[in-house]
Amino acid sequence: PNINDHEELDALIIGAGFFGVYQLHHLRDSIGLRTKIFEAAPDFAGIWYWNRYPGARVDSDVPVYEFSDPKIWKGKNGWKWKERYPGWEELRSYFKFVDERWGLRRDVRFNTRVKGAQFDEDTKLWRVQTEDGMTVKTRFLILCTGFGSKPYVPSYPGLGTFEGKWYHTARWPQEGVRLEGKRVAVFGTGATGVQVIQEIAAKVGELTVFQRTPNMALPMKQCTFTDKELDKMKEGYYEEIFEKRKTTFAGFPITFDPKEGASESPEQQTAFFENIWEKGGFNFWLSTYSDMYVSEEVNNEAYAFWRKKVLQRITKPELREKLAPEKPPHAFGTKRPSLERTFYEKMCQDNVMLVDLKETPVEEITPKGVRTSGGKEYEFDVIVFATGFDAITGGITNIDIKGTHGKSIEEVWKPGARAYLGMSTAHFPNLFFLYGPQAPTAFCNGATCAELQGQWMIDFMAHAFRNNITRIEATEEAEEKWKVKVNESTGKTLFAKTDSWYMGANVPGKVKESLNWTNGVPEYVKEIEEVASRGYEGLFMYFDILADTF
Ligand code: NA7
Predict the structure, then answer these.
(1) Is residue 193 lining ligand 1, measured as CB closer than 6 Å?
(2) Using one digit for the tens of pLDDT, what is the confidence trace for 351-385?
(3) Cβ–ligand 1 contact at 20 (below 6 Å)
(4) I need a surface site. Which of 154, 261, 489, 550 has the fewest CB within 10 A?
(5) Ligand 1 atom 30, closest CA
(6) What keywords are assigned to this protein (predicted)?
(7) Rounded to an integer, what distance in angstroms lies between the CA atom of residue 474 and that of residue 459?
(8) Which residues pair with 180 in a beta bridge?
(9) Which SS3 state, helix, strand or coil, does residue 520 take?
């Protein structure tokens, strides 16, 4: 794109996924700001650029996970999905289509990883450096680095000595990996691990699954659409669903039933669970009883129901307690359930073996494979790490951004994230992050939140430029209050008891805290809009208005 070292931008966005492209489109085209995106990958799609491992697909069904702009989807020439839960290739094509409709590419510098940034108090501008040696100045820096841009690989000793190939799923090679007939290990049975396993089990020679915690996976109920069917959906209820996304807990068209499980008889509960189970997808997770994630009893009943369903598919007796133990390893749904299709059948194939890491933890990676406790060595050609991410904060702390006190965000957030409204942190003026900590990030599907939280940002930027605001940051008091609020409300739920990436507890050394707003999307939007309606001022935010600067 047309950008050089001397250019001074109004806004620099980092990341060209759902959030980044929405920001670019509106800041540039609706408000008229000089805006660019820097993107580390060679193309659009954010998480869907990087996650191209076998079986990678989204867990939100059409049309939840897309932009609501009719310019993109409406009419015969609008975007047409082929599958109810699209895979990564289709999602990448979708971004190409969005680019054509919104004309984004000319303002995106790809293959550009941002290394660091410092705020200059004199000019009130950020100086931003890229790994390839470029420096730009920008009034506002908007991080759209996503919840999962920093992969996490366990630090097993000996990994460097492994003579085969190893990959993290989110860094899968462009050209793919030949797995046919190979001896393959998969670490991790989160959403990613389940997808990889069910996809490759039939291709590989032998598959060894290293499981630490079983996934409470739910049936996806995938299906394909004809163009005609999709046209009918568009006419019938697309717009309604886009509206509904704004009103539900997690930005999906489905949401909790007002009924409490605790007030129902066992027979009523079974009938209720059966009904939401039949609907498939996330219904069993999100259209469940309103007290599902606060009442251990109700949650245990849901788990027992889930277990009964899943056991019917586990034909190898020795796997029953491994994949669906009688005692739940954590409350149901407090880790994101994977949506699976053939996972349990594939786990029972003869070429698939499960190693329980709770019984036999890894001692080291050897040149030939993996040695677990007790001295047993497994030999592999390929090791796949589906071990997740330094989620939510990792994409932000990964960049050496220095605040006005000279400290980096990484340093400041070491004892815990600080993120007023989930978007701003004290001593880092004019820096905003979207889909970051203490926002509904894990509980708001990406496309929905790119528009909801994204719109707040766009409105704020319009306000800031209209009013010559050159410097703005959260106060320490405001961010402290927000943090307490987020952690207190999550503390009342069962989510707080589980060591998940929602709680920052999946990466050793990271503080366990609520990285997510768990009061639901509508409450979040209400809070941030209230702050906006008070002029973004006083109580919560700090302004330093220098008129005539613009
Ligand atoms: P997740 O959900 O963080 O899952 C990571 C998996 O890797 C999970 O099963 C972990 O077990 C396992 N893990 C993590 N560290 C280790 C070590 N050291 N040894 C063995 N196993 C380990 O990441 P995903 O990529 O699957 O999904 C992330 C999100 O992407 C998902 O929620 C969707 O929103 C899309 P654990 O459960 O911690 O015992």
Answers:
(1) yes
(2) 999 999 999 999 999 999 999 998 999 999 999 99
(3) no
(4) 550
(5) 191
(6) FAD, Flavoprotein, Monooxygenase, NADP, Oxidoreductase
(7) 17
(8) 204
(9) coil
- The ligand 1 atom nearest the CA atom of 499: 38
Structure tokens at 320: 């029953």
For the Cβ of 336 lying below 6 angstroms from any atom of ligand 1, the answer is yes
495 and 503 in contact (C-beta within 8 Å)? yes
Q: Specify the ligand 1 atom closest to the Cα of 191.
A: 26
Q: How far apart are CA 174 and CA 386, in angstroms?
A: 17
Confidence of residue 7 (pLDDT cuts 50, 70, 90): confident
Amino acid at 491: G
Dump the DSSP string for 7-76. Answer: -EEEEEEE--SHHHHHHHHHHHHTS---EEEE-SSSSS-THHHH--STT-B-SS-TTSSS---HHHHSST
- Distance (angstroms) between ligand 1 centre and the Cα of 494 equals 19
Sheet hosting strand 165-168, strand order edge to edge: 165-168, 382-385, 183-187, 206-211, 352-356
- pLDDT value for 543: 54
How large is the ipTM?
A: 0.99
Q: What are phi and psi of 36, to 5 degrees?
A: -135, 160
Judge whether 416 and 513 are in contact, CB under 8 Å: yes
Tokens of 373: 């406790």
* Alpha carbon nearest to ligand 1 atom 4, residue: 190
Distance 505 CA to ligand 1 centre (A): 11
Cis peptide bond upstream of 42, omega within 30 = no
What distance in Å separates the CA atoms of residue 480 and residue 412, rounded to the nearest whole number?
A: 13
Residue 467 pLDDT class (50, 70, 90 cuts): confident
Question: Would the CB of 445 count as within 6 Å of ligand 1?
Answer: no
- CB of residue 189 inside a 6 A radius of ligand 1: yes
* Minimum CA distance residue for ligand 1 atom 36: 213
Residue 502, ligand 1, Cβ within 6 A: no
Helix (H, G, I), strand (E, B) or coil at 146: coil
